[in-house]
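Table S2 (text version). Query chain:
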Amino acid sequence: MLDYLKPFLTSYSLLTGIVFCFLGIVTSFFGNKIFKYFLFSTGFLSGLFFGAMAGINFSQNYVVIILASFTGACVFSVTFFLYRTIAIFFIGCIFPFAFLAVFFRIHIAASVSISLISGILTVIFRRFMLSAWLSLAGAVMLFLGLTFLSK
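Corresponding structure-token output:
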């Protein structure tokens, strides 16, 4: 999927960088106030990603991949918006998993175990953990935006 996005992101690196910087600053400082919109957008983007992965596994046809992407995006965004506890658990799981498995290259079983514990703690200590995860997500978006602006 990243091979499909790479030409778009590099050809519009200035616009992508500005959007990521803006979203990173807003998410870092106003994450709890705009949490409903953040849930919807997180659900949309994660559903888009998982739908695209499912579409790529079933077919190499672009129409099938795009339909699977937008179906996943619609299902995830509505689910995240209506069922906040599921979304909060997912947010509490996905950020640690991304950092542990991708950045630190920790074994997948350990990453999943730690991520599930983090998801449960995020549901229990909702206010504090969401502030931490939203601030971290904003910092990552700001970093990505500055990376695109530096190209």
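Notes on Table S2: The helical segments are 2-11, 13-30, 35-58, 62-82, 84-103, 108-124, 126-149. The CA atoms of residues 95 and 133 lie 7 Å apart.
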